[in-house]
User: What shape does this take?
Amino acid sequence: MDILGGDKVITDSFIFVHMPRTAGSTIQLIIRDSGAEIINAANHMSLAQSQGLVDRDPPAFTVIRNPYEWYVSWYRRLVQTDRCDFDFRGFLLECLDKPETDLPVPYYIYGSMSQCWSHFVGSPPNLNLQVIRYERLELDLPTVLHDLSRGDIEPEYTIDQLHRIRERPTGKYTFTDYYDKPELIDLVRRSDHQLLRHYGYMFQSEVA
Assistant: This one.
């Protein structure tokens, strides 16, 4: 089964929730190439709906990223693929001004991170969901995949795959100029305050 592009990857032992711009495609490749039994790859479904596709309530995991980094990453991706005519400030204002009932399709292009997170993952906390911080991916993902796969996905395999996939040319750079914008940082702080408070994020990192 070709799982790439699916928002959820459902295996026989766990669900991976692919939150956009959080290394989800990399994780999908690791799961696919590990030989794990893929039951389904679901698009545009909530975690609760995905859990309804199986007879039990399997554990799930996802990755969260510093919200301001998330917007920068999304903006650069959309610009690189000719899907955004705004400057970064205009893009951010467009995202943060979208009513929840007015999200376009694909709904995550011009919506806040909190709206996107709510659609894909649900409101925190979810006791059956493990959340990995993006900046700790290489430290935490090998253990999480090993535990959730009941030992089928070895940590050494995950580490090797992460290094191999991330060594490929991506055309990405470090966008330091986006971070000297206190007004925009404050907009994100106010918009995504619940995610920030729950996961303890601040605005000191840079996007690579």
About this structure: The chain has one domain: 8-199. Strands lie at 8-11, 15-17, 38-42, 60-64, 129-133. Residues 1-5, 169-173, 204-208 have pLDDT under 50 and may be disordered. The radius of gyration is 17 Å.
